[in-house]
Design goal:
Largest sheet: 6 strands, mixed
Structural class: alpha+beta
Order of helices and strands: HHEEHEEEEH
Helix content: 25-40%
CATH class: Alpha Beta
Shape: globular
Distance between the termini: 45 Å
């Protein structure tokens, strides 16, 4: 079961890197719980879809140096990775976008049920991101 969970998470990140929102959505449950870094929990695939559209509008990102770990039971997984990105369009409450680039260590944690991601929680250091963006 852990192998299936790892494969699911790798498909999720492959879709992320391909900017394939539909592929990411195919990996998540219709009732997915999404805990946004520095933000509120969003529940349901429609809010997840809206989040992805917003992120794709404001940021151009790739997950590199991906390491996926899955519990043997297959109900939990995590990923450690680095985001290499470019800030494309000013996001609400954040500094003005002018094409700044960044490299940011991240971690995501997943719950898996019925072969789909039922929860995704991602963490990164916002202060580090701000420092990189404001320095350019």
């Amino acid at each position: 079961m852990g192998h299936e969970a790892e494969s699911l998470i790798r498909r999720y990140f492959a879709a992320f890197n391909a900017k394939d929102s539909g592929g990411m959505i195919a990996c998540v449950s219709p009732t997915v719980r999404h805990d946004v870094n520095q933000g509120a929990r969003r529940e349901g695939v429609e809010l997840f879809r809206d989040f992805l559209a917003h992120m794709n509008r404001c940021y151009d990102e790739q997950a590199v140096e991906l390491v996926v770990m899955a519990a043997p039971c297959g109900t939990r997984a995590s990923a450690e990775f680095v985001i290499e990105g470019k800030y494309l369009s000013t996001d609400t409450g954040l500094p003005k976008a002018k094409g700044q680039t960044y490299r940011l260590a991240c971690g995501s944690f997943f719950e898996i049920a019925n072969g789909m991601i039922s929860r995704v929680t991602t963490y990164y250091n916002l202060a580090d991101w701000l420092k990189q963006i404001e320095a350019q």
